[in-house]
Structures are given as structure tokens and as C-alpha cells.
Amino acid sequence: xxxxxxxxxxxxxxxxxxxxxxxxxEDTTPHSTPPALGKITLDQSEDIRPGQWVTASIPLPAxxxxxxxxxxxxxxETYLGTKESTEKDGKDILGFNAPSTAGKYAxxxxxxxxxxxxxxxxxHMETLTAxxxxxxxxxxxxxxxxxxxxQITLRAYPVAEKTNDDTQCVMDAKDVLSSVESxxxxxxxxxxxxxxxEIKEIEDIEMDGSESDENCYRLMYRNRVAAKFFxxxxxGESYAIDAxxxxxxxxxxxxxxxxxxxxxxTRKLYSGELEKVCFMLSDDVTNLVITGRKSVDGIRISxxxxxx
Length: 308
What we know:
Elements: H1 2-27, E1 41-42, E2 53-59, E3 67-76, E4 80-88, E5 91-97, E6 103-115, E7 125-136, H2 150-156, E8 161-162, E9 168-174, E10 184-192, E11 195-206, H3 216-230, E12 234-242, E13 248-249, H4 259-271, E14 274-282, E15 286-294, E16 298-307
Antiparallel strand pairs: 1-2, 2-5, 3-6, 4-5, 6-7, 8-9, 9-10, 10-11, 11-16, 12-13, 12-14, 14-15, 15-16
């Protein structure tokens, strides 16, 4: 009888020790909880233009327990140009150029957490996400609509500045009709009665009459081809004006022209034999006239965009 009691006591003590070890081991594994994740907000929720600079922000992740590390990142469905992120005033902030095509786009903020212990479902890591969407609206040309006021123009092009005349804004813009990726061009926005009336781009080509002069006529012709391809415009009338008679010359070098013919028209422009050369294009809402004229030191090429 004593033997059985002793065995019972020993068995009970051993079970209690195992239970204690088991509980002690379980208690040493920390329980981790994720941080709180807020909502993404945009500095502008409506009328986002193609290529416009947009700022998104979200409060920095807060709280949570037993978190070893957190890796934060932004993901854009697509964007144009550059994007920049920074942390300021308790927020994670992302700036980016909106896509060049109208449509709805997604933006995601992710936080990858690695825990000291495990979360409520036994995982040592998890990814938290916040999602938002925005819409890029359809415009008439570039980031502009023909109903824009000067204020809207300055908002759509943050680098643009007003000139002394409040009806005009100017900026150095990427030359979308150039084959040179980094090339910029002066772009002017002219308003009349507080409504956008014309966008004009101007390029001055200096010439000294030597063989090394750039073939300005060919440059204008390439602008014409690029406008059809990149701006999806259709060709219109192309002509030159004789400086002496004022007569319109419609038989000017186009697709099948030789390099010599194009150089000859450059020479005629620079010598003053031709008052100007014009290439006209259009789409459903916008007219474009590419014009070459003699300037003081060479030839000025201008592109005038107006409402159709």
C-alpha cells in the first residue's frame, strides 16, 4: 500500500514539473502585435492631370508590441518621370508625376513587420497594406484644358511662373516632339479673359550661313511627324509664303523630299526669300501650327496650339 502511494506522489510530482516547464517555456515566447496603419490621402482628389505632380501621404505606423523591424514602401501601378519619398511631421510622404494617359490607377503603402515573437495566428512576420486609387482626367493638350484659368494652369504645371503680364505663364518643358530625351523648350500659356487661349513653344536656331548650320526645315518636318505619332494628330495643310509676292507655295518638300531639297528650304528661310513655312495638324479639339521664320540670328521655330 505504501509503495502505491509513493508511486502516486512521484507520478503527480513529475506531471506537475512537466507542466511547469511547459508553461515556463510558453511564457518566454513574446506575443507580438502589429502597428496601427492609417489611410492614404492625396493632396488633390479631383482633376488630376497627365504628368501632374501628385503628393500622397499616410500617418507613420504607430503602436504594436515586440516588433524587431519594419520596412515601409510605396507601390505605384504606374507613374511618369520620377517619384520621391520622405518622412516628415509624423507622415510618410510620396511625390510623383501622374501617368500620361487618362484612367484610374492604384497606389499601395506596405509595411513588412518582423516580430520578436509571433502574432495572434503564430506568424513571425506579416505585411500590412493600405490601398487607395486616383483618376487621371482626359485633357485637351498636354496637361491643359481649353477652359483653364491662369490659376489652374499654375496648379497643373507647378514649375510654370507668371510673367509680368498676369495673362501669361512660362516654363521650361520637356520637348515631347524631339528625339532627344533630355531636350527642353520654352512653353508659354496665353490666357484671354481668364481662359486659356493659346499654348506656344518657341525654339531659336542660330545660324551663320556655313555648311555646319542645322537643317531647320528638316527639324520642322520631324516635329510634324512626331506630332502625328506622339500627339495622335492628323496632317493638315503644309505651305510656304513667298516673301516677295506673298504667294502661297503648296509644293514643298515632305515625305519623299531629299536632304538637299530640305536644306534648300532652310537656306531660303534664312536668306529671307521665304516669309515663313507652315505645317498644320489637328485632332478633335486642338489645332497645331508649326511655323519657321527668319530671326535676327537664324531661324525661329514656333508651335502654336489653339482650340479647334
